[in-house]
Sequence to fold (629 residues):
Amino acid sequence: MGTAARGSTLPFDAVVGSISRPPTTWERAADRMTRALTLTLAWAVIALVTFIVLKIAWTARPAVARFGFGLLTSTTWDTNRELYGLLPAIWGTLYSSILGLAFGTFFGLSIAIVLSQDFLPPALEVVLKNLIELLAAIPSVVYGLWGIFVVIPAVRPIAGWLTEHLGWIPFFGTPLQGPGMLPAAIVLAIMVLPTVSALSRDALIAVPNKLKEAAIGLGATRWEAIFGVLVPTAMTGIFGAIMLGFGRALGETMALAMLVGNSNTLSVSLFSPATTLAALLALNFPEAKGTEAQVLMYAALVLLTITLSVNVVGTAIVARAASKLRGIG
Amino acid sequence: MSANLEITHAFEDVDLGKLERSLRSPRTLLSAVLSAAAIAASLVACVPLLSVLSMLIYRGGQRLTWAALTETPPAAFASGGGFGNAIQGTLTMVGIAVLLSVPCGVLAASYLALFGPETRVASVVRFASKVLTGLPSVLAGVFAYAAVVLVTGGFSAPAGGVALAVLMLPTVLLTAEEAVRMVPVRMKEAAIGMGVTQSQLLWRIVLPTAMPGILTGVMLAIARAAGETAPLLFTALFSSYWLVNVMRPTASLAVLIFNFSGTPFPNQVELAWAASLVLVVMVLAFNITGQFLSRNRHSR
Fold:
């Protein structure tokens, strides 16, 4: 007890007193360094994004200076004559994404409604939710392989029949000879479905329960409540989910490079081969030299601009939907 | 007694038959039909998944032998062979990506959640990582090509690792921020009350407590990166030999599947299926580990 400091007689106090001390110089330096390090790395993330955008823009600069906006509207791609048209690729990117998104939204929204409105017993609901999450986990190159050996053989007879009997409709105008727009859009739909269903489910769950209860209390049937109250209230969030799904579809590369046919044609036919910006990059970049490499960087810049704007708008909409519902809740 | 009577009286002029739910009424019928359609659509959406998995097991399982896992890829007309070097290459490049993205992502996230959650830097970083989440993977490859391949003068494993790290960073960062934010305030306050410095708080209290959540994010990011093909096509390229020098072109499972899927040689197509099975098992293993970690955290 002789060690007791500050006049206390309790051994407990004595121990506490003896170890309490201000931080040492080293501890203070380590503290400052850690905080500086985390701040630096936070800045590094911002720097990385800026660097990516600038690096791609800078490498594309010679092509932009040489061709201007003409590349965006011309259709021929002939490396020997130095003719490069990006319009078919831009069209293919948008067309395949919109088709994929249309299928994906239909199924994704159905799943979001089924998963959020107590259609299934809780155990089954968890199973379905995990299965859909599993869809997102499968790598796109595996979907591409599956598309080549399962989807294309499966849709070919249907496509053949449609071309033969309904060929006067532009959508079915050309026969499907292996890869083409429709198989690509089907696989794309499967790939955007998890994004759309997960985010729309979040939006539907965020709708306060009392709104649904009030609708049911007034005598609405389940689906009158869903279409009349729940979906309109969650509309902003669902729209944001669709936008983010669109962003994912636009940037998707491998499944499309393997399934879309990679032919520089401009067609509304579902069965015609086509190409997309991402597939163009993936397939031509490794061997590109000189002007072609510059033009491909131009294509990368166009793709970057389209996807970033779609994603920024989608993220902003999702964020706005969340803050808007806070008022009702 | 009198209360009961009053209630019957109040409902006297209501036709109780009309209140019954019957499928003969168009409104209930429509509702039932829509319910059935929605459930049917959900089931249809599960068909591709089951088809992919059964094809992987059926066509990939046939060829999945010890030789396939340990040998190098065969030439065009050759039989036999495997993708051992691709497994090695994928693991190497994902490893490089983890080393680059995890320290950076976790420490930046600690700044966002602990040191300066309300600062302008933090909100810009959050925005930047959301932008990165939406970056098409092929553009990560283009970036790594321009920033690493052109600078070092050749296709290499680190170039592929950088491209994958760019794709992993936002997942790691955003989940780590969430995990650090979930650390109970009372733990932080108790530690501060004991007189720890901010950095001791981070290293000894916050990061160990948030570790399961952080690891969930890391596992999900690895699962995504392992399956990526587009960023590797023109950063790591491909190689038919074992990885000896990391500064040379490096094989990966994903690129092998892509290269072999388009060939007319049955032996190579079979190998592509077997490699897909291995890749999907790897990806699912990381995914399930990640979800298992986060489930433990929630039940605590």
